[in-house]
Amino acid sequence: MSSSSSSSYKTAIKQLMARVQTNPNDTNSINQLNTIIEQFLQSYRLNGLFSECLQFLIQIVKQLIEIYPSINDFRPLIIQWLKFKRDVEKKNKEFFDSKLKLRSFLHVAVPSTFNRTISKAKDFFLCELYEYRNANIKSTQMIDERRALVCSLHEQFYGDGSDHFLCARILLERIKLDLANGNALDTDDSNNLANHLRKCSPSSDDIHGIVQRLWLYTEYYLIKFQVCYSKLTSDMSKRIKQDYEEQKRQAAENNAINQLETFHAESMTMEAHKILGNFSEKSIMSTLFKSWDMIKSKSSSVYTIEILKRVATIYPNEIDMFYSNLHTIAALFDLFQYYTEAMEIYRYLLDLLPSYHPSRLTILTACNRLANKCSISLEDKYRPVLNLSSRDYPKATTQISAFDVDEALNLITIAENFLHIKNFQSCKQTLEILEKRPIVSCSYADSFFVRSHLYNLQSKLVLNDDEQLKDFNRNDFLALIEESRSYCAQDLRTSLDIVDVNRLPELSQLQLTPLVLHALQAYLSQVAHLILLNFEIGLYRNAKNYLLVGLELSVYLHAKRWFTFFLALNAQFFILSHQPDCARRKLDQLSHHLSTLDVCTDRQQDLFIDFIHSWADYVKLEYDYHTHAYDRIRTVCETKLSAEYERHHLALDWHRLLYHRMHILYRLTCFQQLRKKSKSNENKKRLIWKLPSNSDKYTEFTFWTESWLAFLTLIEDQPHEILDKSSLWLHPIIVPDESNLTCLPDWTPANDEQHQYQSQQADSKWNNILSPPQVNTGHLFDLNSMSTEDILALTTEPVLPKTKTKKLIDTPRGKTPFHSESQKMLSTPNKTSSASSSSSTASNLMSTFRNKMPIDTSLASPICTPNRTGKKIPPLTVANSNTSSSRPRRAAAIKADERIQQIRYEDNNENTHRIPTSLHSPRLRSVNHDENNDEPVDVLVDQLETLHIERKLKFDDEDDEDTNSSMKLNEKLLQKCIQLHDQLAHAPNAKLMRYLAEYIILLSGDQDPWLVVTLIVEMQAIGFRYNALCIYQRKKRHNTDRSGTPLPSATNASQEHLSHYIDALHFRPLTISYLKDVLINDFLPAKQVCVCLHSFTLVHDQILAVQIRGNYYAPVLRRVIFPRLLIKKFHFLIESNTHTLHGITDHKRYWAIRRYFEQLFERLLEDLNQVYLTSPMRWWWLPETTIFDGKKAMIDDLLSSMIDSPQQRRFIEFFLHQTIFYLSSLDEIRQELSVNLPPAVYTRIFASRLIERLLEFKQRTYTNTSPSNSRPPQNLLLFLDNHLHIFPWEQLHCMTSLFRRIVIYRLPSLLLLDGMHKYYYNSSSSSEADRTAHVENNDVTIIPTEKTFYHHIDVDKGYYIVDPGNDLPRTKERFRKFQSEKPDLIEKWNGVIERFPTNDAIKDIFKSKDVLLYMGHGSGSQFYPVDDVQKNSSRLCVLLMGCSSARLQSLGDFEVFGMPFAYLTCGAATILGCLWDVTDRDIDSLTFFLLEQLKSGASLGEALRYGRELCKLKCLNGAAPVIYGLPVRAR
Question: What keywords is this UniProt entry annotated with (predicted)?
Fold first, then answer.
């Protein structure tokens, strides 16, 4: 404060003092005077002028002591005095000890002439004690100062104890100080306090006594509550810590160090949970009930309320303390879910409090939020005012004033009320006003609470406002709700003065203030909301993390109702994530806790208890749904729940959500029963659920609820044959012959199904590919009972022979094993000339092949081609099909078929994208053949039948009308499904999106392959996209935060990384034109091939393989039977291998077990190659060649003359490309084509000599180019569905042995590839050389102009982390030997051995390094968790050479996650890791080989391909490493 302004202020002080001296009742002058004095004192205090501040305070109080009429007028000065003492104690300890320590305002500021024995001196002491809370000094701070005040009161005024009110207050303060200091309750003080309170009986005229008695009683009951509650929380804190240490020890003993961040999920028997289960909540709540009952009985009348309002200015201290205590009691009732009592107190307080009271808006907000939650109608006096006036508030002395805080609370309450009545537009406008307020952009603590509620409301608006949902900039509802929880946590941290909310249970004592309690209530509500939200979008990993927070926090708080709710959600999590054993245990635990809850006589009177029981019923039904107990669900819903909900008012908002969930579950159950064609349910009517009685009230996730109901409404009344009739698949479903299995041959689908029916446990019917393998085997391999010789004998057992021996076929690369055994397929029998064969009808064929199909035929029934032999077909004379005597009705058949087989392949409106208006089956073109045409018309006619064996052809006129009508109905249904899909694409529900996309695929067939690819790309990796977008949006929001709130310390975010990845991954309807023209043909090099593998959910044991390539070639699709039991086998072997890797000291026995598992892995891979992925399925794994692209016109001329369908032509073209390129023998090519192509097409191609000409062209091309050993491998980008990541697809025979080696790079989504391309090659930080270096002419052996992209790295910019756990001595020894023998390879690298780098070093790694090598246990997540990895931005090439470092954890059907995905999320180029546990010698040798090859210029994929051969255990260790990300090589 300048000298000129200081003098003017001092003049104003003198004038105001004179005015007050003249008129002591002039409150305005007193307030103005206090405001100026406060500013002076605050200026001195903040500038560190402590001596001047104290001197000014003494001078001014000396003058005011004779002027101010009441002690209450000194309250602002006392508050400033306490803040002054607090600051001096922190900043100038010496000055504090000499001048202020243990001295009160009365001793320091009040002149010595003042009589310290009169009543006014006592009021000074009491006022200073009270103002500690208004000075924002916590109860655990400055305890000695307060104790000195209490001692002064006791010494000077306690006397003989006749003043019961004063004695009670002194004892109360003493007890509070003892408790704050961590001491136990003094029994004598407690008994004396009770005696004095009993004697406090003021008369009806003693208003002051009545007010004191109210405050003292509420304070007394709160202390009793706090004593009991503090002991409980302290004991629980110790128990939680013990449980944590015990779980950590067990995890270490079980060698589960990689799962340390998730071990809480298995803590089924935590002692803390058991303690809470035996705890009665009413035992501690009884004191609060007594307190409120006492107030209701004595002070709730209108007369008493008026008295209290009138004396509020006379006795402000006692009244404020009474209000504060009552507010605390209401907040406790609210936190512990006692809604009725909380609402009564909130209303009572709002009746008492004046409009200017600082706590009124906080109470009003809590009251309205509770009213909205319970659908309680409030009178206008309890609602917020539309315009809050700043005139009622004192002039602001800081950037954010009390008016700013109250206005923000008022706007939040108004917006919540608008949202509750579904007035979204008004809610949006209110939030826009709030966003412009300064409190949102400041860094004050009050801003955390405001921003938390602002972002929470915005996230709900985004999911309910169609326009906001479609707006790209607002497509971040998950980030909004995460930000809301984050700011809520910051508000809680600030209130409790703790570092981390997750460390809240470490507090030995919890502060029970209204603000803390409201923050706890808001935080628990946010956590519950986030759990339910992540359930909806399929992010079960996030849901699990929040469940752990909710469970631990509710246990610590002894909030038994909250804990029971989180327990129900935990059981639901285990159900959704397909962990049946854990789910069953949690359901048992939930039933126990429900039985111990304190409930009213009538459950309906306690809303939360009623809701908890209803939610538990729902979770049990969810369990029944996943165990296929559909009849039980229908029985419960149609008998019990239907009648129960008819009478229910659904007042609680969560109860309305539960009603929606129950409704959807019931209708899904009916749909599943319809799929299974259960005869017992054919005539059973479905229950029609009524709309909830409170449908005009807001309910969470209404957008997804309405989408679910719209989808079910479309499909549930369709006949179960709808997909059979509408499937227009060109290709057969390939059914493997499982009679030749060699690995665990007793594990067959038949045995599995029989076991399910025989087992008494419901878990054996769990519909999950990752259900425990014990359902088939009982236990993991137990080799402990076997001797080493017995194990060695197992490895010498002969492998079961295959159906055919391998033939060596000459290829340009030399002798290559190739499997030519026949493949069992769903197809028609070979045609013969017999009359019986020619007269078989399509309907007979359908019945024949349905009997053969071991799949769920209610959902998909393919169109198949015949299984022809390689025998040549002799030329036949042309016959007139219209006059054929053997087929009198064939002309009518062709005519009818042509009318329903019109194709519209091209997209008529690519800007809006969707499917064509009609989809029909393909047909062969009938042509007039000349004399040189050898193709028989009879063969064409046969082909028409074989292409439609799954659809019964009708030839009568009325049948034609029925067929056309059916097609129109299917087209209409398809269009409605597409519209719903587009609407859902902006914010997809994971389960619904998958169901809907698969339904559209099965309904439409492959008539538009680009549509199928678009749907697969959209539903692939939804969980990965949601998780990544949430991280990116939060980083971006922090980067543009006006308040300057810093990012977490571990964060190293790049703006380019965020913008490119958000642009690529954000949810929106993906158009065919954008996918085809931008993502595929413009982005991918011509020779780059992608393969997508999708595992069907609606159809069991089927995967859809899709091969995509650029240069404007249509994708090719194929369905194959791929039993989930095969995945169970693989998981079983992996877990058994891990189980036997540790704890064996006998060297001979260890290697005997390793060789045994090597044999098991080899057999499983052989089964995968020889049984499941033989011809023609292998061609979908091999990248399609581009060598024949120059001959496209010649191929098209031939095919277009006989086939109308572009899809059929593309399919034939694909087989020609693959077989002629990868096979060298003309006979083998002919045999392969005769088996996989329609006979008429094959005959025509055979006669045209096209095969010979293309084969000659290939041979000339490769003869005139460099030797085969100089040709680089073909890069294949593999996009896998969630449950297919565990397989080593890189080890397929077709990838490693046919013609040229294939190098596979895995990625979660094609959209991520788009983001990586933009980030690496289009960003401003990339140099011009980097932007052009990603394409290179490195494959001159095929076509000189062909190019592929690589990411180039600087191998000299590397960092190594070797054995950070200091428990791999041989790995350290080998690495140091490698360093010394080949110092030139990594001499420029930095790194650490036997420890993990510091946080600063990690930041530098992500920022400046190109290669990161980790050699240790696991993936390093025990040192640097996946959540921390994701916070960075980097272009690293990461080598994680540890056990299971690339294994992805699967949670349910929609999410897999692990360290590879974490590095991809942070922008890393490539991650190499192991799919399962490996041994150190092999993996160390491979690591050193990779470094050598990278340094020499080879790509990482090439190096890994050759490095696998170095492993002693080729399958167990050599097959484990895989690569996620982009192809990389050294610059």
Answer: Chromosome partition, Hydrolase
